Please model this.
Amino acid sequence: MISLQHVSKRFGSDGAPAVADLSMEIEEGETVVLVGPSGCGKTTTMKMINRLIEPTSGSIVVNGTDVLRQDPVQLRRGIGYVIQSIGLLPHRTIAENMATVPRLVGWDDARIHKRVEELTAILELDQELLHRYPGELSGGQRQRVGVARALAVDPPVMLMDEPFGAVDPIVRGRLQEQFLDIQERLKKTVVFVTHDIDEAIKIADRIAILNKGGVIEQYAPPEEILRDPANDFVERFVGSERGLKRLALIKVSEIEVEEGPVVGPSASVEEAIRTIEKHDLGWASVVEDGELLGWVDGAVLEGRREVGEATPRRFSAYVTADSSLRQALDSIVTSRTQVAVVVSEGQRYLGILTLERISREIVS
Amino acid sequence: MNQPVIGAILDWDWVGRQLDTIGVQLVEHVQLTAIAVGVGFVISFPLAVFAYRHKRFYAPITWVTGVLYTIPSLALFILLIPYTGLSTATAEIGLVSYTLLILIRNIVAGLRAVPADVKEAAEGMGYTRRQILWSVELPLALPVIMAGVRIATVTTIGLVTVTALIGKGGLGFFILRGLRDFFPTASIVGAVLSVALAVVADGLLLLVQRFLTPWARAVKVRAFA
Ligand SMILES: Nc1ncnc2c1ncn2[C@@H]1O[C@H](COP(=O)(O)OP(=O)(O)OP(=O)(O)O)[C@@H](O)[C@H]1O
Ligand SMILES: [Mg+2]
Model:
C-alpha cells in the first residue's frame, strides 16, 4: 500500500541527513508504528509520505502511484492526517472542522451533514459539542475531533504523528482502545508515530524501531520485537520489562491452562477433601455440566455429606479466554492463593493459571 | 484656584445657532477619516501580506512607512501644497500615510500570530496556499488586524483636526476658529466632539470585531501600534 524505497532527506546542504536511505513496505490495512528516540526522523519520514516534506532522493509509492508525480494538494486530500497538537481550526465549530476535507473536495451539504453525524457516532462524541468552538473542548475531546476530521472522506491511508501525545495517561489509554476498535472495523492503512513503546506495542501490527538518521533497527510485529530483539539498541529501547510487556500481547486462549481442583455437586465430601488436598490450594472449584458455580473449602463443607448440600462461594475475580496473560498475572498476584481462574463466555470453566505456568511463557 | 467650569464659559446660544454647521463638519470629519483608513487599508493589506510571506521585505517596508509616520503632519501638508494645492487630496495623502505603519504592523503581527500547528494541519489536509491565507490565516489574524484598524481610526480622527490648517478639517474647523477669534466655545465644541467621535468609532469597531470573531471570546488580543 505504501512503499518507501531508498528515501533520504537532508535539510540544508551540510550536516547529516535526517533520514538516510530508508526502505520499508507497509501493507494494506496494517497499522505500522514508527518509534525511536527524539530527532531520529519519525516525523520527517511520515511527512514525506504526504509531501509536507519533499524527499531529497528515493521514491515513495502510495496505492500504486508515485507521490512525487502527484499534485501535493490532491494527494493530501486523500490521506488522513493527525498531529499531536491537533491543529483544529479555532475559528470553525467542531462540525465545520470535521467537514473541512469534504468541503475542500466539494461534497454537497446533505452529504457532509450525514458524514458529520456518522463521525460523531464513530468517535462517540457528544452531539452538543458539534456547535462549539475547539477552544471550548477538553484535550481528549479535541484529539477525537482531530481523528474524526482525518477520517472524514474515508481515506484509505492515515498518517498519525503522536496523536495521543498531549493527553493524560488515562485519556490516552481510552483513546488507544477506541483507535483499536475503529481500526478493527475500518481497516485503514495507518502510519503512526509515537515516543511511547508501550503505545506502539498496544496498537501496532508491526513496529519499526528507528535509530538516528531514520535507520531501521528492527521492523517486526510487537510480539517478535519483545521476544527476539534484533540488537542492543532495540533491547534497550524496549526497556527492562520486556517479559511483562510481552505478556500483554498473549491471550489466555493461546496457552494451555491447567485443570486445577474441580469437584461436581454430586461428589462426596471425602472425595472433595481429597481433591483439595491433592492440589494444595485449600479450595476446589465446583463445576456442574461445565459451568463454574464457585468454590468450596473444608470450612464450607463442614458437617455435609455431598458437595451439593453446601452453597459454593463466589470467586472475587476471574480471567477470561480473551484476557491477556498480563491481566492473568495481575489476577494471580492479587489473589490470596496465587491462582487465576479462567472462564469463557457463560461462566464455562476452563481451568486455572499459576505463576509457574505464566513464567514459562516469559522465558520461552 | 477657582477654575471656571466648562459649561459656564460656553456660549450656548452660539452652539444652538451653529448646529447645522456642526452637523456638516461632523460628516466631513467622518468622511475624511473613513477615506483615509479605507485607502490606507487597501494599500497596507497587499504590502503586509507580501511582507509576511517574504520576511526580508518587512524591515524596508516598515522603515519607509515609519519615516512617513514620523514627519510632523503640518510639515507634510506644507510639502504637499505645491503639488496638490489646498485640496482634499492633500489632506488625504497626509492622513493615509499616517495609517500605513499602524495597519501594516498589525496585519503582519496578526498573521504571524496564527499558530503553526493550525497552518500545518491545514496544509496537511490539502488546503492550497491561497486557501490557507483566506480561510485560515486572515480569519485568525482578524482580532489583531481589527485592533490596528481601531488604532488607525482613532489616530486619524485626531489628525483630521490638523487639516483645518489647509482649509479642511471637519471639527478642526471649530478648534481653529476658536483660536483665531479668541472664542473658546468654538474650540471646546470642536475638541469635545472629535474626542466623542473617536470614542464612538472605537466602540463601533469593537462591536464589529466581536461580531466577526465569535470564536475569540476567550482570546486576549494585543495590538501593535
Ligand atoms: N524543517 C527542518 N529543518 C531543518 N532540520 C529539520 C527540520 N525538520 C526536522 N529537522 C531535523 O531532522 C531530524 C529529524 O527530525 P524529526 O522531526 O523527523 O524527528 P522525530 O523523530 O519526529 O523527533 P521527535 O520524536 O522529537 O518528534 C532532527 O535532527 C531535526 O532537527
Ligand atoms: Mg516528531
